[in-house]
Design a protein that fits this description.
The protein has 217 residues and is an alpha/beta fold. It is built from nine helices and ten strands. The protein has a six-stranded mixed beta sheet. A four-stranded parallel beta sheet has the order 1-2-3-4. Strand 5 and strand 6 form a beta hairpin. The chain is globular, with a radius of gyration of 18 Å. The protein binds zinc ion.
Amino acid sequence: MALDAGSLTSSLTTAEQAQISDILVSHSHFDHIRDIPTLGLSTLWEPGSTSVHGLPDTLSAIHEHFLNWKIYPDFTEGLNNAPAKLQFRPVEPKQAFTVLDYQIKPVPVPHPVPCVGYIVKSSSGASIAYTGDTGGGLKSFLHDPMQPGILFVDVTFPNRLHDLADTHRTPHPVQPTERVVDRIGRRRHSATYCCGPHRPPNTKTKWQKSLKTCPAK
Ligand SMILES: [Zn+2]
């Protein structure tokens, strides 16, 4: 199972890509969806298919702009008499569903396009959350009854560009509500706050400095 699809085909072998049965997509921005059509293409001759879970708006955007026979073939259709490689499965905010042995809950977060993060809980009871792109809304994850033990926060800008971040995030929780979330996470729910950067090229040094301020332990 994959959380978003920004770098699946560049970081995994074809055999590894073929083992992805499900992708939980947070929203339609390019850096979160760009490897969905290339995954369909690179695994075209591999057995099995991949379920793509996302908000209806998100799935429509992928279909309309990527899988439109202009940019890529429509991998949600069977090609050459083969089964479809991609199966789109719409989700509803706060409506839990099951994937493999995991309970999944989409959690809406503020962003310029419809966006959800996901809480993923295993059958053993362990639970994590992935925020997707957001400028806030972290308390929704920590207050959820599924109580994620680790909060993976998608961060887009280094700290020095915080003023530009707006509906995205930087590693350091500078806003008062974020400090509260950090305190709640550590004391009430014992959640760990981890930063997962998707950084622009040529910003590695700046990112290394910023990530040192992330309160992950
Ligand atoms: Zn985004």
